[in-house]
Amino acid sequence: MAKKSMLARDVKREKLVKRYAAKRAELKKIITSHTSTDAERREAVVKLAKQPRDASQSRLTNRCAITGRPQGYYRKFGLGRNKLREQTMQGNMPGLGKASW
Q: How far apart are CA 92 and CA 22, in angstroms?
């Protein structure tokens, strides 16, 4: 099980990302737009840099829904490799089974 503080930190980051998503998208659109002037671009870059670091989507970490483990995460199932294997062996994951040939 991951530390409670790490899980709480990720929840906090998710809230920040949602809060700043529209604003960040708008600023990035100005930066990448060919019609905006250099002054507008510079201003947008400065505003983007002043936002909190944790507001960036890339700072989010995928974690296992059961244990909170950040490594060995299977995106399709939302579980870490250990818990995915346990759930598969118990027959809780439809369409998955132990390979044997």
A: 38
Quote the pTM value.
0.77
**Per residue in 15-58, pLDDT tens?**
999 999 999 999 999 999 999 999 999 999 999 999 999 999 99
Query: Taking each helix axis from N to C terminus, what angle separates 4-32 and 38-50, rounded to the nearest 10 degrees?
Result: 170
What residues make up the domain containing 56? 1-61
How far is 63 from 40, CA to CA, in rounded Å? 38
> Which residue in the block uniquely carries the two structure tokens 């346990």?
86
Q: Can you tell me which residue has the tokens 């944790």?
A: 54
Is 86 inside any structural domain? yes
